[in-house]
Design a protein that fits this description.
The chain is an alpha/beta fold and 264 residues long. It has one domain: HUPs (Rossmann fold, 3-Layer(aba) Sandwich). Helices cover 50% and strands 6% of the residues. The chain contains eleven helices and four strands, in the order αβαβαβααβαααααα. Strands 3-2-1-4 form a four-stranded parallel sheet, with helices on both faces. β2, α3 and β3 form a beta-alpha-beta unit. α2 crosses α7. The longest helix has 23 residues. It is globular.
């Protein structure tokens, strides 16, 4: 037996309906005026934006664009075009001045790329919540299951949200849902990247490309197979499968509340 992309097949009209109802329930339950979505021009935020508009209507969705100096112009163009097509109101906030002020005020010096990258993600979280608070809205998260399950997000950064509409879907499934929703092919097929520094690509930081990662995660988490069997059924090196499992286990703290005395 082999684990192939067929294992990730879903009924996408049904998935769309389920997510739309979920978004409506969250916003209604919070008695919010709508939802804020950070739009990057990538597949995840584009899918979430499209679903929020379908769930709530364009008047109850606000898109926040937060480019940095190294953000590809094409990404912001894609985000603007989508938002304009949806008819939603947008705000654009450049994060460079905020980031520069922050790092200048901090006492530690040195070029720690990861610390700075995480600070940028957390600045974007703060901006999302500023608008959400001012507008009486909730913040929609844009994380998918592939990244969530290996901890490939910034704790209290892009992980700091009120609800996660697509966190149950692997990246492969999010792309297929995006195609179902009619998103432009260039967005659906665009390589994923947090764009936290110039030339930043997700594939430089994850153990294997998303197509293979999703099959490995499916084997480990859904089929509950041991690593050696996952490696055999996916044709992915055992060392890579074990690295994915290690990242999944070590990032568990990112997917839960902080430990408290009495529950630890």
């Amino acid at each position: 037996m082999q684990i192939t992309s067929d294992a990730l097949s879903l009924d996408y009209p049904k998935v769309e309906g389920e997510i739309i109802r979920f978004i409506q329930q969250v916003v209604s339950g919070a008695r919010a005026n709508g939802t804020v979505v950070g739009l990057s021009g990538g597949i995840d935020s584009s899918v979430v934006g499209a679903l929020c508009v379908r769930a709530l209507g364009k008047e109850k969705v606000v898109g926040i664009l937060m480019p940095a100096s190294h953000t590809p112009k094409k990404d912001m163009e894609d985000a603007r075009i989508l938002a304009e097509g949806w008819g939603v109101k947008t705000f654009e906030v450049r994060i460079d001045p905020i980031f520069s002020t922050l790092v200048t005020a901090l006492p530690l010096r040195g070029d720690d790329k990861i610390a700075k990258a995480n600070a940028k993600a957390r600045i974007r979280m703060i901006i999302n919540y500023f608008f959400a608070n001012r507008l009486g809205m909730v913040v929609a998260g844009t994380g998918d299951r592939s990244e969530d399950q290996i901890g490939y997000f910034t704790k209290w950064g892009d992980g700091g949200v009120d609800f996660l509409p697509i966190a149950h879907l692997y990246k492969t499934q999010v792309r297929r849902l995006g195609a179902h929703l009619g998103l432009p092919r260039g967005v659906v097929e665009k390589p994923s990247s947090p764009q936290l520094w110039a030339g930043h690509k997700a594939t430089d930081e994850i153990p294997v490309d998303y197509d293979a990662l999703d099959l490995v995660l499916y084997g480990l988490l859904d089929a509950r197979l041991p690593p050696r069997e996952v490696a055999r059924q996916t044709a992915v090196d055992l060392e890579v499968v074990e690295e994915v499992l290690r990242r999944h286990r070590e990032s568990a703290h990112k997917r839960s509340y902080p430990p408290m005395l009495g529950t630890w």
